[in-house]
Amino acid sequence: MTSPLRLCVRRADTPLPGGICAEVALRIPSDVAIIEEAVELVARHCFATWDAPRRVHFRLRVALTEALANAILYGNGEVEARMVEVRAECRPDAVHVHVTDEGPGFDPATVHDPVTPDDLEVPRGRGLFLIRNLMDDVRFNPPGNSICMTLRRA
User: What confidence score (pLDDT) does residue 13 get?
Assistant: First the structure.
């Protein structure tokens, strides 16, 4: 069986426009079984030229896993015909990872904080909580179907 992942990697000896040293683009179907392989591919290419500590590898992998799971389960509703796009920009000072699904989006401000006493039993919001606490910056596009996560190298 061939992998359903579509990977494109661009590397540059000198930074590309915007200071990008490498760019990783990946398209995957909405299948949670593919998440681990997708995370491994993106992480391997992002850290190929960066001797990052293990904790930084961990932070990127967990945040990307959660973002992909949210895109597949909630954004695309696990409809395998819908795709999730991942784009990672590896820069000298940071890694920016964009995850975009084909769903209608959501308002991230409406997601409950899972550590407040009233919301401890609510089964949603934990993935976004992890992402926000592991990454240095997290932003969403206006419809809410794309997240941009930044992990600084410092």
Answer: 67
State the CATH number of the domain containing residue 61.
Answer: 3.30.565.10
Tell whether the model's pLDDT for residue 109 goes beyond 50.
Answer: yes
Q: Are 85 and 25 in contact (CB under 8 A)?
A: yes
**Per the structure, how many domains does the chain have?**
1
> What's the token pair of residue 116?
């407040």
* pLDDT confidence of residue 1: 41
**How many angstroms separate the CA atoms of 14 and 31, rounded?**
36
Q: Is the full-model pTM beyond 0.90?
A: no
113 falls within a domain: no
Q: Is the pLDDT of residue 139 over 80?
A: yes
Q: 3-state SS string over the chain?
A: CCCCCEEEEEECCCCCHHHCCEEEEEEEECCHHHHHHHHHHHHHHHCCCCCCCHHHHHHHHHHHHHHHHHHHHHHCCCCCCCEEEEEEEECCCEEEEEEECCCCCCCHHHCCCCCCHHHCCCCCCHHHHHHHHHCCEEEECCCCCEEEEEEECC
